[in-house]
Amino acid sequence: MNEEQFEKIRSGLGFFAALDQSGGSTPGALAEYGIPKDRYNSDAEMFDLVHAMRTRVITNPAFDGTRILAAILFVQTMERDIDGLPSAQYLWERKNVVPFLKVDLGLADEANDVQLMKPITTLDDVLERTKQHRRIFGTKMRSFITDANEAGISAIVDQQFEYAERIRAAGLVPIMEPEVSIKSPRKEQAETLLRDAIHERLEALPEDAVVMFKVTIPNEPGLYASVASDPRVLRVLALSGGYSRDEACALLAQDPTLTASFSRALLQGLTAEQTDEQFSAELEASIAEIYKSSARRELA
Fold first, then answer.
1. How many domains are contained in the chain?
2. Which candidate in 95, 102, 187, 214 is catalytic?
3. Quick check: is 102 catalytic?
4. pTM strictly above 0.90
5. Is 125 helix (H, G, I), strand (E, B) or coil?
6. The domain spanning residue 278 has which CATH number?
7. How far apart, in whole angstroms, are the C-alpha atoms of residue 171 and residue 178?
């Protein structure tokens, strides 16, 4: 584990940039960026376009480690270059932003009001490939909760911790992301069940374990405070979950235990047609707003 990266994640000011749209979510991300599906004819072209979009964001002067702690990457981004350097190396050495890697392969069909992750059959290979890129500090994996079903939530947390154990054994820090739908009819109950299930599994970890979580901003501010204060938990992140940037930032500002890890909310308002000046102004405004809401406890 890189100690300089560890200290930045542990105590640095800022937020996480989630730039990990994969095959299923890339068309939507490109459409919001102003590139509809009829502009590309294959997955290869699609991934070229989204890499160009990410490169434009990452190389922008507004995007650096003074306000952004880390960036979560898609595997194809890790395998590509930015300005002549492997993406993870560019992030850390040029921008002082800690690279993480999305490792899940998407969601399984819904059962018990949740969607577990599909089996991560590529995990060992991907973990081995991160060693070649060396700058990768940790991983992220997402599952999804639609309602307050105790059995389903327990299964999600079990699966997340099982994979987290393999990731920790490889020397990386896992981010477990059991997202609760903002449309859940019993969102608050689901979040309480999730917190309690996380606590139960945390208690079984060795004292020197290091893990992270990424959760939906809860209805009850401070709900995950006891998780965040566990000495084995490096940070608890918050996803925007379908909220607009303004909504997500307003909610986040009420909960000093969480750090933003936004994707759609971060990229909101950016388009391919913008001039560099317009693009920079929009990205600066986005980063400034998210930083203010995420770093408010340190800035107060």
1. 1
2. 214
3. no
4. yes
5. helix
6. 3.20.20.70
7. 22
